[in-house]
Specification:
mainly alpha, 54 residues
Length: 54
Amino acid sequence: MVTFDADGEHCLTDINRLAEPILADELDLVLGLGRRFQGYQNGSSIVSHSVKSI
């Protein structure tokens, strides 16, 4: 399942980048962070909180 906000800020071509590791059986879940979160590392509190919310 892929979800996007309706405000048009997301690029539809990013779907392939997000889906590739799942389709290759490398990952079970992929989260995409917006540009405002650039610089955050894997395991950051933003990502950890997002996963806990799921």
